TrEMBL record:
The keyword Lipid biosynthesis does not apply. Keywords: Hydrolase. This is Acyl-CoA thioesterase. The keyword Hydrolase applies. The lineage of its organism: Bacteria, Bacillati, Bacillota, Bacilli, Bacillales. Belongs to the 4-hydroxybenzoyl-CoA thioesterase family. InterPro entries: 4-hydroxybenzoyl-CoA_TE, HotDog_dom_sf, YbgC/YbaW. GO terms for molecular function: fatty acyl-CoA hydrolase activity. Pfam families: 4HBT_2 (PF13279).
Length: 133
């Protein structure tokens, strides 16, 4: 299941060069992932009830085009593959001219909140991924 959210670039997200600061893209992607979890019915409190959480272990991001103040951006998120305890989400940020601003593959894993160690993906999450990696 692919999800998307729309945001508008705010003045607090702009750096001295007049475009979105690179670190803000990570925040945008996080908002997109949070929305994806909520849209598939797995908000944080449900993971907490299962005694687990998800943790981001790697982000590979490509900055393609600058984003500027006031632009409307769409952040899309979709699952692409999974392993035993890890999973990969593909994310893209598109501007209002349908141009790719940034794209990323984000690797996360599920971990036990009590033991602070990785645990197998629960079925309620694993079912959204097409294949084992």
């Amino acid at each position: 299941m692919e999800t998307s959210i729309q945001i508008e670039v705010r003045s607090t997200e702009i750096d001295v060069l007049g475009h979105v600061n690179n670190a803000k893209y990570l925040e945008y992607l996080e908002w997109g992932r949070e929305d994806w979890y909520n849209q598939i019915g797995l908000p944080f409190d449900l993971f907490e009830e299962l005694g687990m959480g998800t943790v981001t272990v790697n982000i590979n991001i490509n900055y393609r085009k600058e984003a500027r103040l006031g632009q409307k951006l769409v952040i899309s998120t979709k699952p692409i593959r999974r392993g035993r305890s890890s999973f990969v989400l593909k994310q893209e940020i598109i501007n209002e001219n349908q141009e790719l601003v940034a794209d990323a593959e984000v690797i996360s894993c599920t971990m036990s909140l009590a033991e602070r160690k990785s645990v197998p993906l629960p079925d309620v999450l694993a079912k959204y991924f097409p294949t084992l990696s």
